[in-house]
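Fold description:
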Amino acid sequence: MKKIGKTPSSKVLDFEVGKCNEKLAKKMNLNVGDKIYIFTRLRLADDEPMMVETSYVPYDSFPGLTRKELEEHAMYDIFTKKYNVRFTYAEETFQSVLTREDEADLLNYSKGLPSMVIERITYENRNVIEYAKGIVRGENLKFLRINGGGTKTDFLVIDDKGKVLAYTSMPTCHYIQTSLDNFESVIRNGIEKSIKVD
């Protein structure tokens, strides 16, 4: 976000230590009942709500992780600097949905309008570091990838006028770009886009 003059920030809405259910265990290569961190963040750019994202992180991989750390530092910075994690690849799925009322309230959006769910699994070799699921408001969305040559890559969601509607930052991987024009018709048809980055 800084590369295009935007100031990114996050608000931690919820933080807890829970247990892995069957669905999460399958996605994260864990056992049912394993401890995980579960936290939800509101992602902002220039203090505008862009995305609501819930992350599920293996407890044993990040002992001592706190809500305060996530409020003060970027998550991937914590993972790499404090825990020496090295990301190797990630998988992302993009799916069109209609915005629920609770999501709309957080995003300053309207219930029932098009949004996009971004589901991501991030790996260190074959170990899942994070499973995340977030929702982005959707008005004629396009995805733009910016690789600054470092360890992280910014993915921006922009409208047809170039306004940034949402963003996410993830480990730098090979080049990937996708765009969804006329998002209203896309969501009505229930089209799903799946991308694997490795």
